[in-house]
Design goal:
The chain has 5 helices and 5 strands. It is an alpha/beta fold. The mean pLDDT is 90. The chain has a 5-stranded parallel β-sheet, with helices on both faces.
């Protein structure tokens, strides 16, 4: 955890049930004394597929260092958020290109993790 507290940004990517270990990491991050800006891109098919959606929203509301972005691949036209699957353009939009002072963790199905490893 000491290494994480020295990071300037923490980037987390999760797909479906791959969120479980990421949520455990969020719990650990909440115990770091210096708040580290953390972004979670959470990929699912539809809003109904988002595991622990309310709990995650409540957690984000209590932790200003955390930003959660939902990306859906099969949601209806009413969805105004990001759409699709993990891709370079989306990662650059939220994570940028700088590499110094950052930590990234990825968890999800094999195809997802392979695509996320850019």
């Amino acid at each position: 955890m000491a290494k994480l507290s020295s990071c300037q940004n923490i980037y987390l990517l999760a797909a479906g049930t791959g969120c479980t270990p990421i949520f455990s990491l969020l719990s650990q991050l909440s115990q770091i004394k210096t708040e580290v800006t953390t972004r979670l891109l959470f990929f699912n098919k539809t809003q109904a597929d988002i595991i622990w959606q309310k709990e995650l929203a409540d957690y984000q509301a209590c932790h200003p260092w955390l930003s959660v972005i939902h990306v859906l691949s099969e949601e209806g036209k009413e969805w105004e958020g990001d759409r699709g699957r993990v891709r370079k353009e989306l990662l650059e939009k939220y994570f940028g290109n700088e590499e110094d002072g950052r930590f990234a963790a990825v968890c999800g199905p094999n195809g997802f993790t392979a695509k996320a490893d850019r």
